[in-house]
Specification:
The protein is an all-beta fold and 331 residues long. 0% of the residues lie in helices and 59% in strands. The protein contains no helices and 29 strands. Strands 1, 2, 3, 28 and 29 form a five-stranded antiparallel β-sheet that branches. A four-stranded antiparallel β-sheet has the order 4-5-6-7, with no helix packed on it. Strands 8-9-10-11 form a four-stranded antiparallel β-sheet, with no helix packed on it. Strand 14 and strand 15 form a beta hairpin. The chain is globular. The termini are close together. 47% of the residues are buried.
Amino acid sequence: MQVQNGYLGTYFSAQSAGIYRFQFDSDTGIITEPELYYTAPDSKYLSLSHGLLASPLIKEGRAGVCLIDTTGERPLLAGELFEETKSACYVIQDDTFIYTANYHEGSILIYRKEAHAISLSKRIETGYQAGCHQILFHGHIMMVPCLLRDQILLFDMDRDFAPAGSITFPQGTGPRHGVFDQAHRRFFLVSELSNELFLYEAGTGPQFTLRSVQKILPEGRVWSPAAASAAVRLSPDERFLYLSTRFADLITVYQLDGFQAVKIQQTESGGSHPRDFILTGDGRFLLAANRYEGGLASFRINPGTGMITGLCSRIAAPEAVAVVLDGPHTL
């Protein structure tokens, strides 16, 4: 049996205390009941790299980031630092740094990973309530979608993160999350407020050419509260694109052909308020974190057509926001 350890990040509430661990059977798509793995209240987003799990958290009224070594039987704290007033909504790491995007502060914090410690390397301010929601890297350019500014801000990492321009959207768009293909020729961006998919041709450096824009949801359909698109993922073979939309509680699937994206499916997310979701490395399963109802749901995908073909498993996971998987191992 091939299984993978999975980790769930959660909003803090009376029902959730931090990061939860579960097991995922990569043959059947079955998920085990999650157990509290590490107490990190408000662990809204997770980044797992080489056995190190990075997460935002709040502790005793202070907000910051923690780094946990997951390679042993039990979690081992590799570092914790509190330099933020609110917990970040996004975290990503490389071999040297942890980067957080703070939606409420409008700041990007860059933490250095050291032996059994974390130190603050740099703070970048984008403006109060800019709505920083993600961090992406394109060559030497760091990209920060700012939902409330209707911009993606660009920074030149070769020049100590100096401003390098922006990608600007119509007012009320709310750019939220994006993803590149492996060659970094195509950039896909989903907006939260206008529920649109933007497709760009990416050049070298900060050059982006808009190739298409299309509505994610059916025309004339109204949801209350208003539908709000969230995450975007590209299939491993780069033939399909998947989006989640909260309140509409949908997963949308697009078939890709160069710079063309054709909507081929919209299906239920397995619960209420889908936030993050991931695809397995073989493209056969999708795991969706539903915050309010439904918990964590796994779906089978037909890799040939890209379409979601059925629910495999669903487990209770209150306030689930983010989900990551480690590499498979045999039981």
